[in-house]
Amino acid sequence: MKLPTLALMAFAVASLHADPAAPQAEQASVTPPSTQTAVKELTPEQQKQAFFLQGFILASRSEWAGVVNELDLNESELNSLLDGMRAALKREKPSFKAEEIIPGAEKLFNDRIAAKSKRMAGKNDEFLAKIDADKSVTKTASGLRYKIVTPGTDPKPSATSLVKCLYTGKLVDGTVFDSTSTRGNEPTEFPLNGVIPAWTEGVQLIGKGGKILIYAPANLAYGEQGQGPIPGNSVLEFEVELVEFK
Questions:
Q1: Residues 220, 214 contacting (CB under 8 angstroms)
Q2: Is the pTM of the predicted complex or chain greater than 0.85?
């Protein structure tokens, strides 16, 4: 088995904190540590941390995190999931007959996904109704809702502009799923035509130094599938500041 090199691990760590609205190709690269002349041996505790990091990266860059989110697993269910992974990694076999429970398992998972989708749909409808009742919020033909906090200076970016933004993204329940504030408040750079439609449309409405609140229906964000910590069919709220653009 070929495990990621330290350079790839560093790249993966950077990718974990990259802008979810930006395409993968725009994520920052990391200089390989091979240019370093001396590397200290890890302490026993740091060795544990290295293996923890390896597992963290593998899980974060796979569909596992999406499964946990989609099925809304509690702690006990998560432990069972990890037990199954551990058994597979050790090349052990299940202690039960898998074929006997597969039909029931499929029903359990499908019912769980449907129930969560229904709950999310209700929350989304309530959230959008509240937003639509706010007279300071504008709704466009696409269904995007927005509120300009600060217009910024002219000119404004186009759909093909390369922009740098500070932002915070939230679910309708107020959960922050990503923010540049957690990464040293450094702006993220990306082509405006390479992100979710809500951003492509919304960020063009402000100039340099401008701030906007964007309320994105699922069809203008991540749709039915969602992404990472973002459930499928999620309405999203973004607070975006346009730092500069080219």
A1: no
A2: no
